[in-house]
Amino acid sequence: MNMTDRNKSPIKLKGVGNSLWVTFDPTQPVDFLQEELTKLFKRMKHLVVNARIVLDPGEQEGCDDVVKKLRVFLKDTFDVGAVSKPPVKRAVKEERIRQRDIGSSWHNSASEVLMLTGRVRSGQKITTKKHVLILGDVNPGGEIVAGGDIVVMGSLCGTVSAGQPDNEDSIVLSLDFRPTQVQIGGFLAAGIPSSRGKTVEFASVEDNAIVVKDYLKANPFGRLPQPLVR
Amino acid sequence: MKGKIIVITSGKGGVGKTTATASIGSALALEGNRVLLVDMDIGLRNLDVVMGLENRIVFNIVDIVKGKCKIGQAAIKDRRIDNLFLVPASQSDNKDAITPEEMIRLCEELREEFDFILMDCPAGIEQGFENAVVAADEAVVICAPEVSSIRDADRIIGILFSKSITPKLVVNRIVPEMVERGDMLSHEDVVDVLSIDLIGLVEMDDQVVVSTNMGTPTVLQKNSKAGDAFRRIAMRLNGNEDLPIVVPQVPNRFWKKLGLKIGLGK
Predict the structure, then answer these.
(1) What ipTM did this prediction achieve?
(2) B4-261 has which CATH code?
């Protein structure tokens, strides 16, 4: 055993995120590593209880046994929380593919949409922090307040407030767009003239004003490279 | 068999609730049912005047609820139509003179004695409305083809649904000429917004004004379009649900047009 190595501590400790990152030299004997760990962890006392520990053997491979032994040792001696190996670093190409997959992982995302069926009648008010999708109509006097977008698969004749309180990227879309009043973020529009033709229209904020456009002609999301969670 | 409580409501005032109550009630009684009309518009009673029974009032609904009299003492029997009775509202009390619990108790008693109990609901959605609908089995929403009336009817329908009552719609005061010109909403427009079952379309009729002033139910008037319409509505409420709905039409003006062509008349 090399004595010079013994003089230099084979353990380095760093706080990373919400865990303690322990870099160790796996060539050293396990009991020596345990000794060194004890020195360090004793000083931290209660801070290590339930702490997340990442055991990083550096660039050395095939040291799963050492990691396993140290994991058991740390859990038994210092009552730490989860002990894991550092996350695997991926090649740039692999990482890029992974990022693309994350982008299109909409099928895994929890619903951010409140989907309702039926008719929102006069005097009824729907309030949510999510997006709203209504399969039905919103009658005059009905009111919808949403944190995100408002989509009405029917006639929209009531009052709608999308992107509340301050999300100005929200849109209001309806198959039959005749709202009494539209609010998006802090912008308000009233008395929106109804278009003659029965086209699908949507309202959005452009140049600090609410603009109503033909949805199919404008196709606001058509240029996105891939489907994204909104 | 227990009687059915039907509330006649609209939300907005002046669309024809009281006229409809008097007319539908009279028509149901003419079909042989034992019918009670209850004026729930406490403080602003009208149904007694429309029925021509105002000078026979001794007790009112508040008196019954408070135990001052029995139902039989307060119910005024109509002399023209058998089996038709009216319980008038109090003119000197407020809408909160009766509580919903008291109404439920009263309605249980009324169900035992009558086949149909028609509640003439006051305008608005306050205490008077709550009292009128609290024990109702069915509801008839009267709506005029005007945006304001539709807005209020829509609100009422929402409240009725929340009370597990499925309302039926009567579109009142339709002027076919105006509908044809595009100056008035058609009944299709109204049904489109309110989207509930339609049980009748009533045309605007001058005879209604005459019969209201005379205190005669419209259904007793001969050649009254509104009277005929209310009679058909009563038949539908009485179980004849397949009776087709007659849409008010513009009368054939062939002879008038011909007269104008040849220079007769204006």
Answers:
(1) 0.73
(2) 3.40.50.300
